[in-house]
Amino acid sequence: MNRLFVMVFGLMLSLVALAQAPEAPVRWQVTVRMTSATEGTAVFKARLQPGWHLYGMQLPQGGPKPTVIDLAASKGVKFTSPLKPDREPLTVHDKMFGIDLNWWDSDIVIRRKFTVTDPSDARIAGKITYMGCNDQTCSPPSDFKFDKPVPKKS
After folding, report:
1. How do 108-116 and 123-130 pair as beta strands?
2. Do residues 93 and 103 touch, judged by C-beta distance below 8 A?
3. Rounded CA gap, 21 and 52, in Å?
4. What separation in angstroms does the CA of 77 have from each of 28, 62, 95?
5. pLDDT tens figures, 107-138
6. Reduced 3-state DSSP string for the chain
7. Is the pLDDT confidence value at 87 over 90?
């Protein structure tokens, strides 16, 4: 009977801890949209929890890790534009690092155009390495991996 009580109590504690686990400060969604039969756009959307920010893609040395979207694993496509965010990040002097940093403080969409070179196996694949911070803490650098087939447009 005591063992059963201990097991049930332990299970309940685990469930309570899980229920209180904080939601990830940054969540990514990757989509692929075709604009013609051979051209399209890869869309990377970051959703930020209120009070959090996502570091920009170009940061000075000696600070936190920038957001990096690595598309080297993509196949059957040729990228025809640089990564383009829907708005410029804010530039803020960070007292902890003692340097000017840039970040987005709300949801951000980043796009990159491509041309299909091999429609039989075209994929947008890779990983996003990023850091999210708020006024009190930073998440460690995290990787979000993705692999999306390029849809065919007739």
Report:
1. unpaired
2. no
3. 16
4. 22, 35, 42
5. 999 999 999 999 999 999 999 999 999 989 99
6. CHHHHHHHHHHHHHHHHHHCCCCCCEEEEEEEEECCCCEEEEEEEEEECCCCEEECCCCCCCCCCCCEEECCCCECEEECCCCEECCCCEEEEECCCCEEEEEECCCEEEEEEEEECCCCCCEEEEEEEECEECCCCECCCEEEEEEEECCCCC
7. yes
* Count of Cβ atoms closer than 10 Å to residue 52 Cβ: 21
Can you read off the two tokens belonging to residue 127? Answer: 């990983």
For the purposes of burial, counting CB atoms within 10 Å of the CB of 138, is it exposed (0-12), middle (13-18) or buried (19 or more)?
Answer: middle
Please name each of the domains of the chain with its CATH number.
Answer: 24-149 (2.60.40.1250)
Contact 100, 93 (CB under 8 A): yes
